[in-house]
Amino acid sequence: MLRAALPLLGLPLAGAAAEGEPTQEPGAPGEPPPSLALFRWQWHEVEAPYLVALWILVASLAKIVFHLSRKVTSLVPESCLLILLGLVLGGIVLAVAKKAEYQLEPGTFFLFLLPPIVLDSGYFMPSRLFFDNLGAILTYAVVGTLWNAFTTGAALWGLQQAGLVAPRVQAGLLDFLLFGSLISAVDPVAVLAVFEEVHVNETLFIIVFGESLLNDAVTVVLYKVCNSFVEMGSANVQATDYLKGIASLFVVSLGGAAVGLVFAFLLALTTRFTKRVRIIEPLLVFLLAYAAYLTAEMASLSAILAVTMCGLGCKKYVEANISHKSRTAVKYTMKTLASCAETVIFMLLGISAVDSSKWAWDSGLVLGTLVFILFFRALGVVLQTWVLNQFRLVPLDKIDQVVMSYGGLRGAVAFALVILLDRTKVPAKDYFVATTIVVVFFTVIVQGLTIKPLVKWLKVKRSEHHKPTLNQELHEHTFDHILAAVEDVVGHHGYHYWRDRWEQFDKKYLSQLLMRRSAYRIRDQIWDVYYRLNIRDAISFVDQGGHVLSSTGLTLPSMPSRNSVAETSVTNLLRESGSGACLDLQVIDTVRSGRDREDAVMHHLLCGGLYKPRRRHVESCRRHFISEDARERQDKEVFQQNMKQRLESFKSTKHNICFTKSKPRLRKAGRKKASDGVANTGTTNGKPPRDVGFQDTGKQGAGSEEEEEEESDSSETEKEDDEGIIFVARATSEVLQEGKVSGSLEVCPSPRIIPPSPTCAEKELPWKSGQGDLAVYVSSETTKIVPVDMQTGWNQSISSLESLASPPCTQAPTMTHLPPHSLATEEPQAPLALPSDPLLSFAFPPSWAKAGRSRSESSADIPQQELQPLMGQEDHTHLSPGAANPPCIQFNKGGRL
Amino acid sequence: QGALSSCLRKPRRDPPSFFPAVSQASLVRLHHRFRALDSNKKGYLCRMDLQQIGALAVNPLGDRIIDSFFPDGSHSVDFRGFARVLAHFRPVEDEGTGTWDPEEPEPLNSRMNKLRFAFQLYDLDRDGKISRHEMLQVLRLMVGVQVTEEQLESIADRTVQEADEDGDGAVSFLEFAKTLEKMNIEQKMSIRILK
């Protein structure tokens, strides 16, 4: 890493050296009169930004180097490494330039380096968790910091009185209190850097981290008050000044929070109107947050508090208003800036420590401070926790307290504050600087290094990441409402009551005002989780590339795995028959020519690569540009995503079979029929025949084949319940296509069951005529469908069919291709299912049968008397993904009858 | 007045098993509240009394929670029943959750009983299962009005499927508890002042 850094250092150093020699300035006396130079070296014009960029580059490269070794970063926190790197770099700079350069300037730190970190932490703060623990956080931040400051300052003063601090440290009680105030505050940057790698449980993290953020107000006040007292001289401080000091605590903290909230409001309101200028949305977030910081700083309020509140307050509305892409942009920019600032801070801290001209060493003071801050921190935490536990629902146990005490890291804020001290007013400044550096280094390096093993050793509850489930989200909301209601009943207006109140107010007024109407409409947490789950399913599907053809890969990532045997729910059935379908596919894959396989692969490529991006794009746009049509489409897409995973196997199977040029025509016909059927059954089930639209799309050109598939998918998904019947019929007829040989078709009451003749499609598709495949298909499907929904006649025909299809001798050759486990799952069902008399258990509602009949009669494109279209349709059941799934969906439906 | 004070004293004399989970101080507080809610000083609460609480009217689950005070179709609830329902929300004593006396019934504020309380808010027909329809009804209450009926249905479907393990298309209590096993129910379903 050094080798990487050295050449980079060369430039700034050369620049710094050049700066020292005025004779090199262009246009200086002695130079020849300026002529048109071919090449001019203008270092000074770019020096400042160049240096900044270089330092950031150095820091980033260092980060890359650190992370090359996973071992190192897992043991040593990055902040430690950066500080050490800073020390080395500082040493080199010192050795080369003979003076310390590039130190951590308080101005730079407070104006440029700190805001991104605080904004990042405020914006991404888990607000629910934060407010749930607000009481504890505030206590630790206010009382804890005050306690630390006063006890440390007083104890150091006592140490001096006891003569343990060298007399050359000229400081009175006020100086020590000032020092105590700046050294007492837990530093957000350091805490964040260390705790992010430790992964303690959320409550513990939010308490320590929240404290480090909110204590800024106290630190600022204490520091300013003490500083002004020191400058006034202790003799001139009057009682009113103390009162003013206390009052300023409230002014600074509440004022800072108010500034932050005002800017959060402005920010949310502004993003409401950025519909046509999406591109500036991320910028707005940063600008207004930074404006909040600067405003608070200007009014000498707590700037950290302001930015924290701004981020915390605006997030909900901003996230709802800005586009999906902007959200990503905001997230990454914020993280990048914060990480960059953090890196630079730690590195500069290391560099600054090298400059020995700034500090003076006193062992008594340094050791005393180290001991006191550790001791009083621990003592303060224990005392406060004891008090807090009287009021807390979930008490903080001893282990938590240990981690909290030990996690009180000091950092750059203390350093910047101590640098800001005025040497003329605080004669012991140099000693304080040295002590602060030691304290910061000790806490960041020693404590930072040891806190991870400590947490492991104490077995602190770690944070466990589990994916959100709909159930959890829903139940959590239920619990909130229950608790609010119970508090109402009990008549105690506690936390839940006020939170409920706030949520109602927010829903009624604030969200209405601050959220775009379109965003407000789709803003619901449960819906959000649902939406995200769907997207994740879709993405994981895309990630798999649709190449997962094995039945083992068919688990939904967002659903818990289930092993129970009695699976009858929709999903499980889908999955089950999915494996059946895969089985089918495998047979085909082994039998088919290489050409077909190629087709299949190509289709998967297209399927995985082509239309997914399109849809993702559509989503991001549609999310907010919502016309009526778009809304509907969006809904459809969500459904598609939801079902995508479940239909996956079917789709792949069918595509594999059918990916030839002649398909679109047939498919469309089939789809038409399907949608007709959907419409009809829809009405029987009291549902509006919404799917007429698909019919139309079905008639459109063949170019949008993919899309059509999607739509037919979605229509099926939505009509899940209704569709079963149609596809029963179809599945049966498909079965009967085989069964015609047995001559039992007359029995079938359905008008669609007509002896079919080979269609053109069948001729075109070599495997259509292959008896072996069909036999397999029939056997697997019939076993599923027959027992459930068959009518008497159908049943008879099926049984006769069975006699045709079931003789194992004909199928044996093909069956050998099947994986043994699928055989095992399929075979046992047949003997069990078939004997059961469907006559008794499943009476087919006559109205449905009628509906089925009228449906097929009414379909204009497919006159039922003709065999050809029927065959086409049947082909289609094999081919199109839409028609593929019905049997199982219907099966489930049948089970419910 | 005398009746009231006796009513107040009565719960104190009750054996602990009747009020296993509510402390003395909470009982007094609850009884004050009970009397305040009891509009006609009739010694029991009816639905109307609870419906008068303003914030309950806007609570989406308000009606169901009121119903849970009146089990088995009764129309009044005395103080004992009142306290019994609220005892579900008493915080669990530190870590001693699973160690109650096996002879005594499981305390009302145990994790399972808390869950059971929530469960019966879903399970309207009391068949021990949250059907898809019941889930849909709850979702309709909870999800904002902006979501269409079909979206709601698909959410309900997915929610049921997510939790449904035995594949009967409904969520049984065990399945319900299982979906929440990672959640700190003891904490989420407790109110501190009922300690």
Automatic annotation (TrEMBL), chain A:
Subcellular location: Cell membrane; Recycling endosome membrane
Transmembrane segments: 48-68, 80-97, 137-159, 171-195, 204-225, 245-269, 366-387, 399-419, 431-451
A GO molecular function held by the record: sodium:proton antiporter activity
Biased amino acid composition, Polar residues: 857-867
UniProt keyword annotation of Lipoprotein present: no
Bilayer disposition of the protein: Multi-pass membrane protein
Cellular component per GO, a single term: synapse
Alphabetic keyword roster: Antiport, Cell membrane, Endosome, Ion transport, Membrane, Signal, Sodium, Sodium transport, Transmembrane, Transmembrane helix, Transport
Residues annotated as signal peptide: 1-18
Annotated stretches, region: Disordered: 661-724, 849-897
Coiled coil: none
Keyword field contains Electron transport: no
One biological process term in Gene Ontology: sodium ion import across plasma membrane
Biased composition (Acidic residues): 704-724
Chief place where the protein resides: membrane
Domain Cation/H+ exchanger transmembrane intervals: 56-457
Biased composition (Basic residues): 662-672
Pfam family, one: Na_H_Exchanger
Similarity comment text for this entry: Belongs to the monovalent cation:proton antiporter 1 (CPA1) transporter (TC 2.A.36) family.
Listed name of the protein: Sodium/hydrogen exchanger
The organism of origin for this protein: Loxodonta africana
Automatic annotation (TrEMBL), chain B:
CDD domains: EFh
PROSITE patterns per the UniProt record, alphabetical: EF_HAND_1, EF_HAND_2
InterPro entries per record: Calcineurin_B_homologous (IPR051875), EF-hand-dom_pair (IPR011992), EF_Hand_1_Ca_BS (IPR018247), EF_hand_dom (IPR002048)
GO biological process per UniProt: cellular response to calcium ion; positive regulation of calcineurin-NFAT signaling cascade; positive regulation of cell population proliferation; positive regulation of protein import into nucleus; positive regulation of transcription by RNA polymerase II; protein transport
Gene that encodes it: CHP2
Record protein name field: Calcineurin like EF-hand protein 2
Domain EF-hand: start-end pairs: 110-145, 151-186
A GO cellular component entry from the record: plasma membrane
Keywords: Calcium, Cell membrane, Cytoplasm, Lipoprotein, Membrane, Metal-binding, Myristate, Nucleus, Phosphoprotein, Protein transport, Repeat, Transport
Localization annotation: Cell membrane; Cytoplasm; Nucleus
Keyword Metal-binding: yes
Keyword Metal-binding among record annotations: yes
Superkingdom to which the source organism belongs: Eukaryota
Family matches, as Pfam families: EF-hand_5, EF-hand_7
MF terms (GO), sorted A to Z: calcium ion binding
Family annotation (PANTHER family): EG:114D9.1 PROTEIN-RELATED
Family: Belongs to the calcineurin regulatory subunit family. CHP subfamily.
